[in-house]
Amino acid sequence: MSSQNINNNKQGPDMKMPKFNMNWIYLLMMVVLGVLYFTSGNVNSSVKTEATYTQFKTMVLKGYAKSIVVNNKTNTLQMYVKPEHIRDVFKQGVEQTGKEPSVSVEYGSVDQVEAFVNEARKLKKFNGDFSYENKSDNDIFSTLLYNLLPIIFLVAIWMFFMRRMSGGLGGGAGIFSVGKSKAKMYEKGNQITVTFKDVAGQAGAKQEVQEIVDFLKNPGKYTELGGKIPKGALLVGPPGTGKTLLAKAVAGEAGVPFFSMSGSDFVEMFVGVGASRVRDLFRQAKEKSPCIIFIDEIDAVGRARSKNPAMGGNDERENTLNALLTEMDGFGTNSGVIILAATNRADMLDSALMRAGRFDRQIHVDLPDLNERKAIFQVHLKPVKTDDSLDIDFLARQTPGFSGADIANVCNEAALIAARHNCKSVTKQDFLDAVDRIIGGLEKKTKIMTDAEKKAIAIHEAGHATISWFCEHANPLVKVSIVPRGRALGAAWYLPEERAITTKEEMLDEMCATLGGRAAEELFIGRISTGAMNDLERVTKSAYGMVAYAGMSEKLPNICYYNNSEYSFQRPYSETTAKIMDDEVLKMINEQYDRARQILNEHKDGHAQLADLLVANEVIFAEDVEKIFGKRPWASRSEELLEAQQKAEAEAMAERREKELAAQGTSLEEKVRTDKQPPSVSSEGEG
Known about the structure:
Elements: H1 3-10, H2 22-43, E1 48-51, H3 53-61, E2 65-71, E3 76-81, H4 86-90, H5 94-97, E4 102-106, H6 110-122, E5 129-133, H7 140-165, E6 184-186, H8 203-217, H9 220-223, E7 232-236, H10 243-254, E8 258-262, H11 273-288, E9 291-296, H12 299-302, H13 316-328, E10 337-343, H14 351-354, E11 361-364, H15 370-380, H16 392-397, H17 404-420, H18 428-440, E12 447-448, H19 451-470, E13 477-481, E14 491-494, H20 504-514, H21 516-524, H22 533-549, H23 575-602, H24 604-617, E15 619-621, H25 622-629, H26 637-663, H27 668-674, E16 679-680
Parallel strand pairs: 1-4, 2-5, 7-10, 7-11, 8-9, 9-10
Antiparallel strand pairs: 2-3, 3-4, 6-8, 12-16, 13-14, 13-15
Helix pairs in contact: 2-7, 8-10, 11-13, 15-17, 17-18, 19-20, 19-21, 19-24, 20-22, 20-23, 21-23, 22-23
């Protein structure tokens, strides 16, 4: 290989060249101009005066001359005065005249000047320098620089700040390019490597966007039957469900130019900039058609317009939205341009934006169900070194209501926990600890609780476990803990059923189980505490939802008072109805509280055993509750599937605690016998 080829290889993509930035040029210009400005002022700061040729000869013969400079171009000479004679010539001191004041004299002949200087040298009246120069006194560049420098300096500062306010657009795109679109364009096979294979779950949403990609690749398949390509598709769903990931998959699969930007990129401090950027975006898209435009978080610019002009009906955001509506489906044509957008606030979007012809499809990207969570786990577990005994089905059942982002966080947190314990692989217990960490918070092992506080928390949590065990529709219990996590002093973990609809009986059973902690405190301690604040908040919200929205009360049946109007300033019901709502909510909660007290009275011996076991072990599982109360009367399918796993989980927890205590030089039996004080957190709440 030649040396030239070797040098070319060294200049490959590994070399990081500095990026060009106009701000450095502006800064350099300001520094240079500032130096020239101040140095020019210093040179010309000494006083100059004019004199006749006779006065010049007199001053030279008196010994005032320090040096003489003859300018042949202007027929003038400059005589610089000695410092000790400055006051004799200028009648001022050095402070006023400067260090090198001079006298300007017009002469007739250079020969006469030379003869006079030679004569003065012979008389020893002048012994300084005698020189010639050809510069003009009125140098054009110096004059212009001296006069225009302040203006240039101000213009440079103005341009610098205007570039900052316009978003730092580079490459000659200063203030005059503030209306240009900020969309990033991705060509075919460039930078985007995500495909539909990387999107787990969301089969329905994936099918709809995949159809758009198929239309772009094979338009004839649809146009032969008279079909038209959809103009827009709106991805709607909770945060973390994969809306942006679906858009990336479309960009990786489509094989056409893909423009990506955020809704906030249209917003700017200048009037009319947002609308200008919308028009520029669609102009670029038409030039590259067929293509796809993706606008993430479109609610930043597509929020419903105000019906009251006094409340900003003509503001910049609405002008931007009007431009977007016109470009998507206006008088002009946008053939070959497809709009993809994503938001989790579809209820706030303008109705004109949602109509057919603009966003033809609304694709709902919901939270994943059991099978979809299993597929998502399989994707995120690929880079994780897991134990061979790990059951992905069990992990999927343990994470109801988790989004794809939450599941990715669980996998990462489990790997961190395993590394913290110096394990060589990530086990099932690490994943369970990760779920507990995400739901309940980090364990607080730094504070100590008193025996009374520990007993009170155990009674409270045992109340939840007892009521949920004997309520038919309550969620199946997984485990109960009195180890503080986050702001909670204790917690109970359940495995909720994934229901499409929820009945009144199911909601009442959940309410009764939630009130079990407060009821246990009143029955078995004789006083209530602030530990049930979170429980009471959840119960109150659930009761008002049942009465006001679901129509599940006796006095207000089959009526929904939900009002989705964004600009409504009054309740859709009277004060009398509000009083009835309050009474119905209070009645409903009191009935379930009395029911919880009754169940606890019937099983107070079992509740006491549960509380004592919690004090001793800090964590108990469903199998421990089953040993005390017997098999649950209403075993759900989830419980049957989970029963085999709970035993293994309890054994793994006991084994880990045994190892930790063995490392400290004690045994589990000694730990229980000495009743070592557990860690604690603040006493704000335990619910």
